[in-house]
Amino acid sequence: MAGGARRLFRRILQLHRALPPALRDLGDRYVKEEFRRHRAAGPAEAQRFLREWENYAALIQQQIEDKQNLREKAVYGIQLTEEKLNDFRDEQIGQLKELMDEATKPHKKITISKDSEYKT
C-alpha cells in the first residue's frame, strides 16, 4: 500500500476534524492502528482494505455534509448487517466489540489498547 493509501489515510484524518472531539480521537487512533497493521498486507487484502476505508470515507463525508446542511440530526456510522458481520474474522469481531464498548462509555476519555488485535 503506497501513495493511494497515504492519500486515503490523510483524507480520513481530515474528515475526522468535523467529528465531535471524542469520536475524532477514537477514530484517529483506530485509523492509525489499522493502517499500520495492514502496511504489509498482500495485494488482495490491501485492495479489500482500501475499498472498505474508501467506503467509510465516502459515508463520513456524506454524514458531515448532511449535518452541515441541517438536513439530518448528526449521526455518524452505520448499522452493520448480519451478512457483513459474518464476513468478519474473530479478531475483527473482538476489535469491533472493543470499539463499541469504548464509544458507548459515558463521558470518559476514549482509549484503544495496544493489544486489541489479540482480544476476542
TrEMBL record:
A Pfam cross-reference name: Complex1_LYR_2
CDD domains: Complex1_LYR_SDHAF3_LYRM10 (cd20270)
PANTHER family found in the cross-reference section: DC11 ACN9 HOMOLOG, SUCCINATE DEHYDROGENASE ASSEMBLY FACTOR 3, MITOCHONDRIAL
Family, per entry: Belongs to the complex I LYR family. SDHAF3 subfamily.
GO cellular component: mitochondrial intermembrane space; mitochondrial matrix
Subunit (UniProt): Interacts with the iron-sulfur protein subunit within the SDH catalytic dimer.
GO biological process: mitochondrial respiratory chain complex II assembly; succinate metabolic process
Functional description taken from the UniProt entry: Plays an essential role in the assembly of succinate dehydrogenase (SDH), an enzyme complex (also referred to as respiratory complex II) that is a component of both the tricarboxylic acid (TCA) cycle and the mitochondrial electron transport chain, and which couples the oxidation of succinate to fumarate with the reduction of ubiquinone (coenzyme Q) to ubiquinol. Promotes maturation of the iron-sulfur protein subunit of the SDH catalytic dimer, protecting it from the deleterious effects of oxidants. May act together with SDHAF1.
Protein's recorded name: Succinate dehydrogenase assembly factor 3
Localization terms from the record: Mitochondrion matrix
Key words, A-Z: Chaperone, Mitochondrion, Transit peptide
